[in-house]
Sequence to fold (324 residues):
Amino acid sequence: MDLIKAIEAEQIKEEIADFNVGDTVKVHYKIVEGQTERVQVYEGLVIAINNASSRKTVTVRKISYGVGVERIFPIHSPKIDKIEVMRRGRVRRAKLYYIRDRVGKAAKVKELIRKKAK
Amino acid sequence: MLGLIGKKVGMTQVYDEQGTMTPVTVIKFEDNVVVGKRSVDKDGYEACVLGTVDKKAKKVTKPYGGQFPEGVEPKQFLYEMRDFDLETEIGTKYGVELFEELKFVDVIGTSKGKGYQGVMKRHGFGGGRKTHGSKFHRANGSTGMAAYPSRVIKGTKMPGRMGGERKTVQNLKIVRVDAEKQIILVKGAVPGTRDSVVLVRRAKKK
Fold:
């Protein structure tokens, strides 16, 4: 099994933004259009993180033109340029699937206010 | 034929430069040593006997050890390669470097045992309806005609032991050859459990 871990370790990115479930993030991902490559930004709420070494994925949800959109990003993929944290959220569970059933203000996650390190 | 005896390590997924994910099986090789040769004059066919993984000296019986020429350690796993592509001599060692130019391989292994299985899983029968008054669910149905021939034809598909047999998967793409770790990654699944012995050979149909 160690061999498999070694293969996966090669693909794990070292610098990954430190974010948690409940945070609002901006995912910059590369798209290839014919010859050119450009970066698109997808902003939304992290509702789930699935850890599996190099196959770690993050589910990001946003409301786009009144329609709920969820995208799952493999964060160690070379297609992911970077992930920016916009806002920290205060949540009490690891998966925020309940957000899917809520509309408007009820679907909000409170901002996490952290004490400053002394 | 060109091939080596390896061990299935397990499965994972790898990204390529474009960011596409590929499911791969990792196969590890220890030194494959030529332990014998068969020739047309003596045996009626050309072949090269490959062996891998040293066998404990204590475990080697005299008849088993007797088949190995001098200077070659007794090996656990042996395979006769018919019409080996390379000119070889007894004692030559091969590693994954053999696969560097290949694009596709066939992998032969022993599939996982599934136990006693019904006809739907074992032979892919359709089965019947579950509801709407149906009384025919997963049974095999008719097994033949009546007064003539008054018996079941040999080879009729029926329930029974499934798996644990030699299986070949053809045309698996080689994703990566790692000479340092002596492993190769092939796209897709390979028969057998983890740590089971598999034979990897050049794809016959590519």
